[in-house]
Amino acid sequence: MNRRMARILALATLAVLLPQCKLATNENPVPSIDAFVANWSSSVNRVYLNDGSGSFTGSDATSDTHNSYDVALGDLDEDGDLDAFVANQGQVNRVYLNDGSGSFIGSDATSDTHNSFDVALGDLDGDGDLDAFIANCSSQINRVYLNDGSGSFIGSDATTDAHESYGVALGDLDGK
What we know:
Elements: H1 3-17, E1 35-37, E2 43-50, E3 56-66, E4 68-74, E5 83-98, E6 104-122, E7 131-136, E8 140-147, E9 153-163
Antiparallel strand pairs: 1-2, 2-3, 4-5, 5-6, 6-7, 7-8, 8-9
């Protein structure tokens, strides 16, 4: 990417992010950064809420246990808060919808089971909501999960080739 394209991309990114930024005041403090942790070995995924000073209080995301490998956060149901899409190995991938207070309701993304190791969120079909791209290993085909805007997904193979995929990142690589 040349410098001009890099500047255009940076300005486009600012145009998207600036309307979401708020001025910090006593009435409107800067939100603290919390954490959603994907846990392995049939453990419960955890949410850690930040009190604003860097101290965290942990709680179970839900009571379900999975072999979770990765998590991506985004507003999956378009209600203004961060939800979680979790990639699980040997189990269905899960969606955790946030109620706005840091409490989550978990559901299966779809009914298909894969050895998923990584997830990235982006608007893959151009309809304005966040979809998921899943990297699968064990010679399984990577998957795309298209969101209907409410946090419900339809899964399909991304391509026909199978690999040992362990990571995925999304971006406009061909400039189209």
